[in-house]
UniProtKB/TrEMBL annotation:
InterPro entries for the chain: C-N_Hydrolase (IPR003010), C-N_Hydrolase_sf (IPR036526), Nit1/2_C-N_Hydrolase (IPR045254), UPF0012_CS (IPR001110)
CN hydrolase domain boundaries: 3-251
Protein known as: Carbon-nitrogen hydrolase family protein
Classification via CDD domains: nit
Organism of this sequence: Pseudorhizobium endolithicum
Length: 284
């Protein structure tokens, strides 16, 4: 089974209406290139680090502009549209960093809430505390589509291999990592992390990214890419501004890669013992 996939690179601003229009334009272009699955980046709806500013444009699922636009696009273009994520108001007053997958008829297949919160202190004073704003998800998800089984993750999730392994063992053939990676961490780790997740699970990986300097002042790394199960980068974008990367996905390559290196089958349970020198009578 083969299909054409696209990763949409954006530089989302603080206005969801404009971001929805930009998303629609790019998704239509990807569909015109033959893509039947199109993924957008993390925080498609708004890249806004000012919390009051974010709260001012926040909506629940029923009234969110990105959600309704994605549904309309899926229906209009008869494709699968995967909103990498957008901020969604929850009934308890908290916020979810939530991804959405829509079927060609416009129906919602599933959602995924980002599990791991980006709480870090980087060099040069760059610091982030996503847990202060977002409620983490607690459920991994695999969606069975007509052309492949799709596993979900968002951005910082990529640093937690057990999530991807769980999805691969459950049958995921295509892993997804929509993101808004910072430039600092992206330059150091983005490609190597994505390729590692693809290689160690023998799966395709599709990562649509935010790219460039945003209205709120943050800078994201870009370099959206699609990677095959052997770790080869099939398509990649640059580090700033909009882009569309497209690649043909041959799901049979997943079976071939896992046949050559069957590490999913070869994994074994084990125990861990911590040994101290004093306990073994070894002199310091």
């Amino acid at each position: 089974m083969t299909f054409k996939a696209a990763a949409i690179q954006m530089c989302s601003g603080i206005d969801p209406e404009k971001n929805a229009a930009d998303m629609a334009r790019l998704v239509r272009e990807a569909a015109s290139q033959g893509a039947v699955y199109v993924q957008t980046p993390e925080m498609t709806g708004a890249v806004q680090k000012d919390r009051p500013g974010l709260m001012a444009v926040l909506r629940d699922e029923a009234s969110d502009r990105i959600v309704s636009t994605a549904q309309e696009l899926a229906r209009e273009l008869a494709i699968h549209v995967h909103v990498g994520s957008t901020a969604i108001a929850l009934p308890d007053g908290k916020i979810a960093n939530r991804g959405f997958l829509f079927a060609p008829g416009g129906g919602r297949i599933c959602t995924y809430d980002k599990i791991h919160m980006f709480d870090v202190d980087l060099d040069n004073g760059e610091s982030w505390r996503e847990s202060a704003v977002y409620r983490p998800g607690g459920e991994a998800r695999v969606a069975e589509l007509p052309f492949a089984k799709l596993g979900f993750a968002i951005c910082y999730d990529v640093r937690f291999p057990s999530l991807f392994r769980t999805e691969a063992v459950a049958g995921a053939e295509v892993l997804t990592v929509p993101a808004a990676f910072t430039r600092q961490t992206g330059e150091a780790h983005w490609e190597v992390l994505l390729r590692a997740r693809a290689i160690e699970n023998g799966a395709f990986l599709i990562a649509a990214a935010q790219a460039g300097v945003h209205e709120d002042g943050r800078e994201t790394f870009g370099h959206s890419m699609i990677i095959d199960p052997w770790g080869k980068v099939l398509a990649s974008a640059g580090g700033s501004g909009e882009a569309i990367v497209v690649a043909e996905i041959d799901v049979e390559q997943v079976k071939a890669a896992r046949g050559k290196i069957p590490n999913l089958k070869n994994a074994r349970d084990f125990t861990l013992e911590t040994v101290t020198a004093e306990a073994k009578g070894v002199a310091a």
